[in-house]
Amino acid sequence: MSTHETRAPLNTRPAPGVTPAATDPGSPGSVEPPRRKANAPRRPGQGRAGKILLGLLAWCVGLLFVSPLLWMLLTSLHAETDASTNPPSYFAPLTLESFVNFFGGGNGANPWPFLINSAVAAIVSTLIVLVLSTMAAYSLAIRRIERWSDVLFFLLSTKMLPMVAGLLPVYLVAKSFGILDTWLLLIIIYSAMNMPIAVWMMRSFLAEVPVEVLEAAELDGARLPRVFVQILLPLTAPGLAATALICFIFSWNELLFATVLTSTAASTAPVFLTSFVTSQGLFVSQVCAASLIISVPVLVAGIAAQDKLVQGLSMGAVK
User: What's residue 275's pLDDT?
Assistant: First the structure.
């Protein structure tokens, strides 16, 4: 008797007349792909009708958010007498009179100094905030300092103070330094106003950067400035774009400090909008035209940074 065990051949075939046992689809030894059960529930929007309904819902929500802009555009293309009627005359003749008045034609004031003041204050303050918030976020997310959570709470607590509460102290300090109605004062105010939210945003973006990449760069002899320029900035470009756009929007739309701390030399575009409210009444068509034109820089910046903005706002959402 042989001591070796008898093994069955690998390619065994069933005997004639014998039906092989059926293999359950989806089992480990099954060749066929698993099939969905007939009574399995579908996910919401999985069917054709669900996709159509979701598409219609998305269009309705989009039109709901765009409808104020469309109403402003239509009103700005009407004469002042037609735009001031109640209810508005939507089928009145169209004219560009309000846009001509905005750019200084007719009896309108010159808006370019106000637009330039807003652009300088918003752009310069945004650049300052990006530089300072990135360095602060680096020390809070990667090279953590002691009691870094207390620093974050302190930055957040500064946003809890109403802006009007700090208006009088800021005015007195600016008056004592002789910087009232200047670009410098607006840049300082806007930088301080946007710094807390920028630090919080940049810290969340820098926390997503793998520490191994930075350690490898340090082992290769790269110093901190080179690590910032060649590694951190490219990896956090979406976050930088999102932070820059939000800071720019907040600075461009700020009205309270610009109204109180400026008079003529450094007045901004939102302050210029208040000039349409006079003792003679509210010029609806001119206000709509001015609001649309003043909103153009923000819309252009949002469209230009659309891809980076979506990536930046979604960074850290999925682990």
Answer: 82
